[in-house]
Automatic annotation (TrEMBL):
GO BP terms: cytochrome complex assembly
CC annotations in GO: cell envelope
All residue ranges annotated as the Thioredoxin domain in the record: 41-187
Span list, region Disordered: 14-34
Pfam families: Redoxin
Keyword Disulfide bond appears in the UniProt entry: yes
Subcellular location: Cell envelope
PROSITE patterns linked: THIOREDOXIN_1 (PS00194), THIOREDOXIN_2 (PS51352)
Molecular-function GO term, any one: oxidoreductase activity
Name of protein: Thioredoxin domain-containing protein
Amino acid sequence: MTVAGAMTLTSCIGSDDGDKPNGSAGGNYVTGPSGISTVARGERTDAPKLDGETVAGETLDTTTLKGKVVVLNVWGSWCPPCRGEAKYFAKVSKELADAGQDVSFVGINTRDNSKQNATAFEENYGITYPSLYDPDGKLMLRFPKGTLNPKAIPSTIVLDKEGKIAARALVAVNEEQLRSMIDPLLAEK
């Protein structure tokens, strides 16, 4: 496999004129070898308010989830790596819900021009948690500079129980990586 092919499989990301594909623009992130970045508890910043209509046509405001660990996954039905990681999000969200853990999963569907494609994606991959419908990417632009690269799809951001950004991955993740972002936050007192 060529390097270019490997990059395509890793992320649906574009980069031009010096954009850093990892979305790093400074900040307090420490990136591990898995591509997951974490922020020490005392250095975390507040997540922006993310609200709007879901793919299912309901209203959602993520600020109402404060007190829980919140997993935000940016995805598009057109994105092959998003399809690859979807089974892990479906599995982990179900297992944590069944175990009664204080975790909420919220998708952010972006760049899908119709809700039909997004709905079909959720049905095909067993995604049962809500996804905000964000066809033009405006929700992603609410994040502080350096937090989330709007071109990095898929991306995952995990908020601690205080609604602060604690971890991120600007690439597709597997089950082990996803759990490594969530479990330490569940253990925080």
